[in-house]
Amino acid sequence: MPTDSDRPTETRAFSDFGIDAALCDALTDAGITEPFPIQELTLPMALSGADVIGQARTGTGKTLAFGLPALQRVAPEHRHVQVLVIVPTRELCLQVTGELEQATTRLDLSLVAVFGGRPIEPQAQALADGAHVVVGTPGRLLDVHQRGMLDLSGVATLVLDEADEMLDLGFLPDVEHLIGLCPAQRQTLLFSATMPSPVVGLARRYMSKPTFVRAEEDRSALSPDTSHAFLSCHRLDKPAVLARILQAPDRGLCLVFTRTKRMADQLAKELADREVDAAAIHSDLRQEARERALRRFREGKVTVLVATEVAARGLDIDHVTHVVNYDCPDDEKMYLHRIGRTGRAGAAGAAVTLAVWNELARLEMIKKALNLGDQPTHEVFSTSTLLDELFNLPPAQTPARPRQPDRGGRSGGDSGGDAASGPAKRGQGQSGKRRRGGRGRSGRTRAGDRDGTGDQATSGDR
């Protein structure tokens, strides 16, 4: 398949690529004036009608890379579905729809988001009223089609966003079914952070002579603006270690990843007991609760969002300065997907990974795969002065434990963290000069305590 790996060197405007004035004006209204690299690479081919495979990590501007060419091809006078965008998660569905709506404020186009967790009737009514663009998750899209509410026979542009995530979630059979419902003569745009063989196979079966573009030379997709810190600690001390890290003076919004839904709830409560504004998000929450937690996080009303891997996939949230792997990722791919939420668009970010003793071998494999083997793994306790040095923390003073109940007796904290830690105050760390927090310093590391990892992963945080 053809390849275009040359990155444009001079700054260009969206209008230079032939984007319609109405779309350009809407972007200007939103403060978007200069395209990102993936957009500069994709727009010429996509606007010509060619199939395109784009490889870029989350947060690099993929939505406009496929959205602008797709929107430009829509004929407003024809009230049927002309653009279908398939995404893996509900949150990404809302996010993509919002970005496309932002670009169409000066156009008379109808966009509909179709996803589970919400009543199907309002979505069906919106489709019946005539939608030009539909953004949806595979399961709900198939549901509304099987009920006779969605006709894909007029689709001119098909977009598969976060294709590798749909593979991981087991959605490829549903995606292939949906592709089969679209006309054979169409434009197909596929975007993915990684290119596993099943995704490559999908492209070969359903795309016509696609052009491959990649927005960055580094195949590992590590942002050069993100620093990495790797810490070994005792399982029972992890909540207190995290609470200390959250005191970093350069911290803005922080996304914390846990392996299980139960741990997400448990850790959010533990942090709240330590006076940290935190909320949890996972698939067991009602859709309204998930959206409310995300909205509060985006608005800065809570500064720490504790999330499971699946619930946070594809989320694009501005001003995330820190990502913490509270549980060690399974592999380098999971690591990349998690930390891709920080260090975006030239902003500095910090990625912190906590590991207990039986995760250290896996952590070293991840570091080696990402060429981070020279980064030390420091053994720390919540009272370690090394944390102060690594994250420029204020010195710990009075040891703080989770708040006790109003009545007498011991606290019933879920996480069981009995190590001392200074509380992370509400709103702390959002002012002052930004630093690339979490950079490891050279020096000796200490052998970690031996303990278990806690909760085992549950299947299907879908």
Instruction: Assign the CATH topology of the largest domain.
Output: Rossmann fold
Instruction: Give Rg in angstroms.
Output: 23 Å
What general outline do the C-alpha atoms trace?
globular
What's the mean pLDDT score?
83
The string of secondary-structure elements, in order, is EHHEHEHEHEHEHHEHEEHEHEHEEHEHEH
Outline the low-pLDDT stretches. 2-9, 407-462
What is the percentage of strand-forming residues? 15-25%
Number of helices: 15
Given helix and strand content, the structural type is alpha/beta
Overall CATH class of the largest domain: Alpha Beta
Biggest sheet, open or closed, and with what strands and sense? 8 strands, parallel
CATH architecture of the largest domain: 3-Layer(aba) Sandwich
How many separate structural domains? 2
Distance between the termini: 34 Å
Side-by-side strand order of the widest sheet = 1-8-2-7-6-3-5-4
Per DSSP E runs of 2 or more residues, the count of β-strands stands at: 15
Helicity range: 25-40%
Q: CATH homologous superfamily of the largest domain, by name?
A: P-loop containing nucleotide triphosphate hydrolases
